[in-house]
Amino acid sequence: MSGKSSYGQGQSALLVWISLVIYLLILSGCEDEPGQREYPRIRTLEVTNITGDGATFVAEVTHEGTVPITEHGFAWSIFLPDVRSAERINLGSFSGKGRYEAEIRTALDEGIAYEVCAFVKAGDYTVYGDEVQFMSLGSGAPEVLDFQPYEAAWGDTVTITGMRFSYVNSTNRISVDDLTFLPFYSSDTLLKFVLSPEVIRTENSLSVSIFGNVATATHKLLLIIPELYGFTPSEVHWGDTVTFTGHHLNYLGRLSSDGMVLSESVISKVATREEESVSFLVPGHLSTTPATVSVVYGPFIYSFPQSITLLPPVIDSIAPGEATWGSEVTLYGKFNSQQERSRVMFGDMEAQIISHSRELLIVKVPANLAEYVTTVKYTSEPFTCEYDGSFSLKRPEISEIEPLEGYVGQIITIRGKYFRKNITTVEIGGKEVLVRSANDTVITCYVPGDIYGECEVTVSLNGYTVSAGEAFNATNHVITEVTPLIVAYGETVTVRGANFRPGTLLYLGQYEITPAVLTEGVIQFAMPPWLPYQPWSLSVKYSYWNSDQVDWAESSCTYPDQFQLKDFNITGVTPVTGEAGDIVTITGTDFGSPDVTFGSVGAELIESTSSLIRVKVPPLSSGEHTINVTIGGRTHACPAKYTHSGPWHRLADLPFLFDYGCSFDFGEEAYALTGGESGAYVKEIYRFDNSSKEFTRIPGTFYSEILNPISCTLAGKGYMIGQKGTSIGIGFEVFNPDNMTVSRLADYPGTFFVNPCIIADDSVIYAGCGKAASSNFYQWYKDFWKYSPATNKWTRLADCPYNVSFSNHVYIDGRLIFLANLYVMGGVRYLLEYKPLTNTWDETELSEDELGYWLLWDFKNGAKVSVINEDKWYIGFGDWYQNNENYGTTNPDINNRFYIFDPADDTWETITNVVAPPRTFALHFSIGGKIYIGGHQIYQWYDFWEYDPQLDQ
Fold first, then answer.
1. What is the pTM of this model?
2. H/E element, 21
3. Cβ distance 636 to 652 under 8 Å?
4. What confidence category does residue 755 fall into, taking pLDDT thresholds of 50, 70 and 90?
């Protein structure tokens, strides 16, 4: 048997034979079957008459079989034709054996290779012949006989009758005007398709095409336009159903664009539809009222004169009406179905929505609700509705306090109901306490300070206060007595009371006092000797460090009466004359911690008791001084004056401000040149009278180009050098005391912007070295020059080997001596000597062992006092910056250290007990074996001092 079973042409021959064997075994097992059944066999022959109009298929039944043939025909396809899915032609029943054929005039595409297969149906089986291939040249068009109905609405089924249709839906192309549809049912004589909303013309041509061959129906297909009449209701809540009536509505909603449109932008999709009605739900995102209404159905838009009015939401009831924070409360009523557009407010606090529907909302009572009775509002734009009733928070209740006794810093626990963290206030004895923790049922807090005995405990939340049934006993300390209240320094004071504890602190005013005795009922302390004279209150404090809150808890009790300090009394002082360094003893009563001054100069305290004070006499100006004793801010003078003997004596203040000036020391005559009242360059000159120790102004003023002059003397004239203030360069001028004139000389040719040294021997003047300096900059220079008064010319000499500041030089005993340093802040120091005959420098390295630390340190300083007295060089005071300008910062090294150099053996001596205060740029000179120092160009002092070396032996 040549063929294949209905399981499909693609099964292999082996599977076919296995199936037949199984089937024959089953048949042989049936006792009612009289004999074995045989199926027909068929053979597909070559295709003939292949033309552009079609082809002829030929087959032959080669074996009739015992099962009747109920259908026979052909199936064709590009691959594996099958009667269930391929193109086919049915020719009806067949009997016997022999050939049959069919003329195919449709469903053949031009230029396509097809496979054709003959088939017969016998009983439940379809028997196929072999596949035969052929190349198609095309086929003819189908024939449309009629269609029904002639008038159709969207969604209606249209049935087309005709001939030579394809059994394959995708091959049949149905056109309604310019729109193409595929049938959902196809046979060679019948097609069915559904009219979709894409068809919008009222009259349309209908045609069927197969592979480009078109057959057009005689009649026109008429579109039945859907109708909408109106809707109900017109007043709605969100989620209500709006129903429209009309005709031919059963297809509405099949397109994504179909829907009810409110206010031109809010769209609702179809909820239900029938032939003559359609319904929509009012969407939750509708927020305009009244809203215009229209319906989109396919390509049509239906608008209505009537509008829809959105009704406001309603809260019908709330359950429960009383609850605590965080509880769930249910609202019943009519709400928006969209939760994101819903808000529930308890007063001015928003509640969290847990569950949501049109008729029910479950919300949480806000955790930060601060009112016990609140309104409840529901908001969904554009409406806000308020519940007619109100909601109440449950009030706090106190059930237990543990313990019922305690003192500051101890923790107590309050139990109850309806508490709330962060908004709970607890008071004990009317004083608010620090809450450590709180939840709905338990509060822990600290006992506060400054409460005593039985105290009421209250808990307050949101303006409601509940009191505990039992009182709390506060055991904080109390003061009952203090004796005595009029006290001398060092006297013992006794404080009596109750509940004093270890760690209790004692205060007199703001000062903490360390007690000598501390028990539960008694505190004793000695009155501090440094306490100022004033009334003092006494407080006892107990502090507790609260590590949870990182804070101190404190209880403080202050005694109502105040202390009075007994005034001290001075009865005597001895000795009443002496020198610096002597010891003076002051006697009296009720002394505390004393400060002792001789005039305004402080003395070093050696010993102090309640009845005796011993001090060391400080360096003082010669003469009488009042000894003042200050204790506790109160000062008493000793009954006898102290007369001081020493080399320093303060004279009357200078009658001028020594500023932008210099001094000229002519041996037994001295002059001071200083900036005048009309400017720094208009100088005034004063002569010193050694007999009266006073200055006399020389009439007139003297103009100088030098801002900060540095001076020396030679042959009865004074020479000045320094930076020009009005032009670039170093000016050089001469003062002639014979005719009281100041004259310009040849400018210094050395480095600009420097504060140079100037020194004279017996015939010429030397200048150079020094440094340019300001408050934040300095630079050293080493060029060295000499000036000849005879020729008014400068000559450059050998450079100085090290750094030298002005004033650190002297001409003494026929020698030109300089103090020098290698580095500013440290390093080796040198004693230099310039040799004019050889134009060379001799240098001697100096050490701290020879000179001491401070003398070496001061080698860097300039603007010093530098005078010759009795064949010795006196040098000291000065500073580091060495310029008469506003430093901008405090000069760290203005000093009053003073030294003596003896050229006979190059030795140094430090002058101790220098009375004149530290200064720089001082007026200085020596007359009659005494040295005079005064003024201070930086801080503008007027004080004037005499130093007599003969009294400092």
1. 0.56
2. helix 13-28
3. no
4. confident
